[in-house]
Amino acid sequence: MSGHDHSHESENLPPLEGAGGPALENLVLEEAIRELLIEKEVIEAREVERLLEVLQTRRPALGARLVTRIWTDPDFRKLALENGKAAAELELGINLVEAPEIIFLENTPKRHHLVVCTLCSCYPTYIMGPSPTWYRSKAFRARVVKEPRAVLAEFNTDLPEDVEIRVVDSTAEVRYLVVPVRPGGSEGMNREALARLVNRDSMIGAALADSP
Amino acid sequence: MEGRYQVGERVVVRSDTPKGYCRTPFYLRGRPGVVTGQLGPFLDPEKMGYGLPGLPKRFLYTVRFGQSGLWSDYDGPAGDTLIADIFEHWLDPGE
């Protein structure tokens, strides 16, 4: 990182991702808007960097910690279902004052939640870090509200017809984190071992937790 | 601030098409649903999107829709559902 210079050269741009990654023009647009906001003193460069530093410490492993505690601690589960943000702050020891509300969606053998944001790409970034590229893709966002079972099948997640699929369109002020069903055969495992079963996609509802 | 609609109440999403920024997806407009949660009052993002203070606050609900009520050609089981968060000024009483 070359510090705080306001160079308009493009050499600081991050490398392009695959076909689903951000288009070059979007990266240029982001840089232009960010630098304008800094020049107009709406934001400070170090605010942006501070936020990016915070977000880089957030990752799916933190979500997995919350899931395993919900699985194993009935009092914590009750708190999490009543006040998601308070539960996350308690378990993770992080400050979520600036974060949107968090609601945990508990999957059961009869109901499977699957989260999307059709309007943009809202995601519990403050806990999980940046969302996966496919989550932000227009194809996923458009299709999942209309043919959720076909989309789930593409993630190798096939659910029987008697399981209600509940798509959750994260349209406003709340971020949703799915608590997958605790897999069979995981009885007696400690939280550290359980956490390895909680993959990122299972906390979006695109997948199930892994089997031990 | 109290919500006008209670949990369990039937509602219909307004089928307005206002110009500009809003938080109600097109595919839900005009569709009937049931309130499943009262999320409380929030600053109005449809105003904040234009740099305004977002007042008055708007009451936000979680609303559940049956998939077969959203898409006439939905080919999954009748029990499949969708929930979304909808602000009160986008809801009318249902039947």
Would you kindly provide a written description of the structure presented here, covering whatever features stand out?
The complex is a heterodimer of chains A (212) and B (95). Chain A is of the alpha/beta class and 212 residues long. Chain A folds into two domains: 23-56, no CATH class; 60-203, Nitrile Hydratase, Chain A. Chain A has ten helices and four strands; from the N terminus they run H-H-H-H-H-E-E-H-H-H-H-E-E-H. A two-stranded parallel sheet of chain A has the order 1-4. Chain A is globular. Mean pLDDT of chain A is 89; it is low at 1-19. With 95 residues, chain B is mainly beta. Chain B has a single domain, classed as SH3 type barrels, CATH 2.30.30.50. Chain B is built from two helices and five strands, in the order E-E-H-E-H-E-E. In chain B, strands 4-3-2-1-5 form a five-stranded antiparallel sheet. The radius of gyration of chain B is 14 Å and the shape is globular. The mean pLDDT of chain B is 94. Classes of the chains: A alpha/beta (212), B mainly beta (95). Strand 3 (164-169) of chain A pairs parallel with strand 4 of chain B, so a sheet runs across the interface.
